[in-house]
Amino acid sequence: MDKLDLSLVSPLNVVPDIGAKRGEKLARIGFRTVLDLLYFFPFRYEDRRAVQSIRQLVPGVPAGFLARVRQIRKKNIRNLRVPLVEADLEDASGMVRAVWFGQDYLLKTLPPETVAFFFGKPEVSTYDGLLTVRSPVVEKMESEKKGQKSFHVNRIVPVYHEEQGLSSSFFRKIIGTILASLWGNTFDPIPSGILSSSQMMGWFPALVEMHFPKNLPKGADTDALLMPEYPPRKRFIFEELFFLEFLMGYKKREIQSIPRVHPRTIPPDGMSRFERALPFQLTKAQRRAMGEIESDFARPVPMNRLLLGDVGSGKTLVAAWGVFLSASSGLQSAFMAPTEILAKQHFITLKGLLESHGVSLALLTQSVRKTEKRDLMEAVHQGKIHLVVGTHALIQDALSFSSLGYIVVDEQHKFGVEQRKTLISKGDNPDVLVMTATPIPRSLALSYFGDLDLSLLDERPAGRLPVRTEIISGREEETFWDKRIGPVLERGEQVFVVYPLIEESENEDLKDATSMHGVLSAKWPSAGIRLLTGKMTWEEKESTMESFRSGTTRLLVSTTVVEVGVDIPGATVMVVENAERFGLAQLHQLRGRVGRGSLPGMCFLVPGRHASSEALERLAILEQTDDGFVVAEEDLKIRGPGEFIGTRQSGLPAFRVANLVRDAETLLAARRLASDFVGMVPGNPAEHTWEWTTLMNFIQNRYPGVEDWLMIR
Questions:
Q1: Which of 218, 240, 451, 474 could serve as 658's disulfide partner, Cβ 3.0–4.6 Å?
Q2: Are residues 331 and 382 in the same domain?
Q3: How many CB atoms lie within 10 A of CB 243?
Q4: pLDDT tens-digit map of 353-369
């Protein structure tokens, strides 16, 4: 048999048995090259080294066997609601019957002469005494060439998730074929010195063992192959973490290699002037972060910093300090927020902080009238405006700055790579401050934001009272609105009520904002109750929020559109219905919308009727702490890093096997080795250049979106 000539970047349509239709299906799930498919790891394994013949089957003992379908038929049995599918299965040693209930599709997928692997518990039928396997698991065997060891039986076999109608058996055969074609490959993307220091398996041997393990660890079952200690898996855990840390270090080095275009003048009395104008005292954390920004501005390279803070920790004030310093150096600033509600909120806050220092501000959103927008843009172009606060409107071609030196991006993950790139290109290598609304665990921030310097706001401003949280049990729900919310409205305080759905859904047993707006409006007609959802127009949203800000509306029914940035000092109560449907970090954001004035805040979490005990235990964490970083750490342990990784723009490597909580020790080792490799002065420049190029090429082939990510700060 001629060896198939494949490379890691070969398109999958050159692999036998894939063809155009299967190629399209694979492309839809992100598999376009040989390399893509090699990283589609099994989710479990089956030990088929001792596949039995039909004659060896023992009644009552579950077993796997390979057989040919001799006959298959459908039977309608009286008193049985669903039809029965019955098949006669045979091999060289004998015959056994298989039955399935209500699975008519098997008549098409298992026609006579089909060879398949069956797994189930054989029993002697009380009806006719024949050996019968009820509802066995079935896996059709892809045809294999003579003389080739089967990928499907007589070995430990990988089991893959079925995708786009492509079976586990299909993936097993194709991946096995690819590995056979690459046999003897000595390539490794990880530099040899790092591979040696980390004592990890080589790349190709680890790949083979991940897909087709030779043996089980001594005294263990197939579950041991899914453990992080399994050497091939350990290799790929390290690889994923090393790639991430290398990319962060590389990007940070590249950013810091480009000199600042506009030198800055730091006013010696700047901090004291700025602080004297504040109506409150700075926290130590705010002062520290402001000092870090000032130090960055004094450096010969531009700032690239992440401001990480809890809800209500004063992030906007710290960002305003950068605007103040920029204006002092004759430079303009841009502050981009993802929504018009949030942009207007920031504009109001920043105006109060900066206008007394002679800083001129403008708000630019899609709803600004044409004539007003034209005049505003001209003033920005002439340098008459120091700070422009806005939404995506800031990136339009018509807007040009006279001297843009400082950019703040709030909730940067809601902006695409090209959008951020366009805004940054409006200045000459400006300073950039990124803010996130969600507290991110520090361990995660150091990894997924490792290209940025980190400023941490871990203190609550003086006078800011904690928001108390309480879970409302099922028996309290009937009297909840009258006993707990009625008195709040009578006192003239304001209430948020949040729902997971905008409208009623046939598929979900959840309360929805639209229906409950009607119910609550009928209950309290004098409360001016309004509805706020993401589907409303900007004018409708602004009218609703203005009514809530002014106090005309005392109860606002909403979806999570209020999750971030909405500042209503009179709002003291947050009610979240079906609270189990939200992440802890998201719920923490929601409760951060209340208690922002002089009165303490209260958050009621109302679980749905079918909430599990695990969900209730998770919600209890919010009753126990109001520290966003503690909540974030717990959320990371429970739900994994997915919730937080969403706060980073796409393009970064996604983990298939690594886990930042479980693999913390490996992460630290990978970070140290990646940092050494990025910063090293090589003893052998040619070897280092070769390894660097190999590593970067492999990462770019493995993660196609990473090139775009590397291009943007």
A1: 240
A2: yes
A3: 24
A4: 999 999 999 999 888 88
Last residue of a domain, one of 419, 436, 457: 457
Placement of tokens 């002062």 in the chain: 287
Q: Which residues pair with 99 in a beta bridge?
A: 86, 134
Q: How far apart are CA 670 and CA 474, in angstroms?
A: 48
The crossing angle, in degrees rounded to 10, of helices 664-679 and 231-255 is: 40
Q: Assign residue 21 the CATH number of its domain.
A: 1.10.150
- Cα first-last separation, the chain: 51
Q: pTM of the prediction? A: 0.77
Residue 648 has pLDDT above 60, yes or no: no
For the chain, what is the mean pLDDT?
Answer: 88
Yes or no: say if 677 and 480 are a contact pair by the CB < 8 Å rule.
no
The 3-state DSSP class for residue 508 equals coil
Sequence-ordered alpha helix ranges (H) in 256-414:
270-276, 284-298, 315-328, 340-354, 370-381
In the chain, the amino acid numbered 166 is L
Contacts of 460 by beta carbon, 8 Å cutoff, 6+ apart = 283, 310, 312, 313, 466
- Count of domains for the chain: 5
The string of pLDDT tens digits covering residues 29-83 is 999 999 999 999 999 998 888 778 999 999 998 888 999 999 999 988 777 778 8
The residue among 192, 187, 157 whose CA lies nearest residue 175 is: 157
Average pLDDT over residues 567-596: 89
For residue 289, give both structure tokens: 């972060």
Final residue in a domain of this structure, among 154, 174, 203 = 154
pLDDT value of position 476: 83
* Spatial distance between the Cα atoms of 404 and 373, rounded to a whole number of angstroms: 18
- What is the per-residue burial (b if ≥16 Cβ within 10 Å, else e) of 331-342? bbbbbbbbbbbb
Residues 529 and 591 in one domain: yes
CA 576 to chain centre: 23
Residues present in the chain in total: 713
Domain containing residue 363: 270-457
